[in-house]
Amino acid sequence: MNPQLQQLLIAYAITAAAMLVGLLLMRADARAYWRWPVYSAMVMALGVVTWNLLRNLVPAQWALLHPGALYYAALAVYAVFGIGIGILLGRLTRRKTDPEASTQEPQMDIPGPRPPPND
To answer: CA Rg, the chain, in Å?
Structure first.
């Protein structure tokens, strides 16, 4: 397999897994899970572009002296973007509850047979 394609698949897997964690943390609605593969691909592309811009801020000798650190930093960027967008998407697609229903006390009327009439 082409090494560049292999690295893109690793980046997608990290981003998609982190995004799934974010969706599960926010207890997203089912419609978010349908959007998850496409959104994780877009977030991966955003992460790759962001990492290429951030890599220019790192001193040039790091590419030779610390290649492992740079690799894991790139994976961390993908994971942070994935979980961030996963939490955002989960929050946007969460079921809305009625605020008045959550502040009312629960009804304690237990259904059952009626008492006999007092005649």
So the answer is: 24
pLDDT digit string, tens, across residues 67-82: 888 889 899 999 999 9
Predicted TM-score of the model (pTM):
0.73
What gap in Å lies between CA 60 and CA 76, rounded to an integer? 20
Phi first, then psi: give them for residue 104, nearest 5 degrees: -80, 150
Q: Please, are residues 22 and 81 in contact by the beta-carbon 8 Å criterion?
A: no
Instruction: State in Å, rounded, how far the first CA of the chain is from the last one.
Output: 89
**Residues 77/50, Cβ–Cβ less than 8 Å:** yes
| DSSP per position, 23-56 | HHHTT--HHHHHHHHHHHHHHHHHHHHHHHHHHT
